[in-house]
Amino acid sequence: MTLPLxxxxxxxxxxxxxxxxxxxxxxxxxxxxxxxxxxxxFTFAAIPAIFLLPKPKxxxxxxxxxxxxxxxxxxxxxxxxxxxxISPGLASLVIQTQVFFTLLLAMRMSGxxxxxxxxxxxxxxAGGIGIIASxxxxxxxxxxxxxxxxxxxxxxxxxxxxxxxxxxxxxAYVVWSSVFAAPPLFALSLxxxxxxxxxxxxxxxxxxxxxxxLWQSAGNTIFGYGAWSWLLSRHPAATIVPxxxxxxxxxMSCSALLLGEGLPAWKLVAAAxxxxxxxxxxxxxxxxxxxxxx
Length: 294
What we know:
- By secondary structure, this protein is mainly α.
- The chain has helices at 5-28, 34-46, 60-84, 88-94, 98-110, 116-134, 142-164, 170-204, 207-234, 237-240, 247-259, 265-293.
């Protein structure tokens, strides 16, 4: 199914925002400590939208689990890693391994076996991650890589929880689950970063720092999830979801252009392997169906 031009441009704008957001995160971390930054992101993702969107017809436990996995597990760890342990471009690439973690978790729960093309996709992505690990340097460390992989696993756990929620308004679901993400992040910030650092950051944050926070909540969450959910409600997932493959493309290119992150040959090879694995996993079933129908 071919997307109308306006819908294609909307989807492209969403993946561009999601990809370039890693640069915005890096800018925000210059002003806010990571856990406080994440807490602020989810605070403004919830307020004021929570007063405009009705609560999804799902239990509080599900919302709390999703908020914990995505808020604390995914973004808490991602922000901690991006402070000094991994470059924004590589972070935008490695976090996409959540696709494979989600696949493995779903198959473990359902008892399904991993198919041949999925093993191939996993091997390709693992090879790319291995290349990144072997080139750990001052901008990316093994610790940073591990933290982002755990963040990706937490994201995949959130995906499984979200799937159990059933057919709900995903934007409202994300907004209401943010209520459960912000408090533990504030608590962790208080314990790990301390009230002095938190207070200093809030007092000295300039307009650019607050713009980064609002971009995380309004641009990345409200517009991004809202537009993506709107597109998925009008087109087959197989038409929309593959466009997410462009997120690391925007992430790595924006990091190179705006932050001066280098793109040596090993990094491009690693990116090609991870993205090829993602492409095989997402696109092979659709291609196989076309070939069978031919």
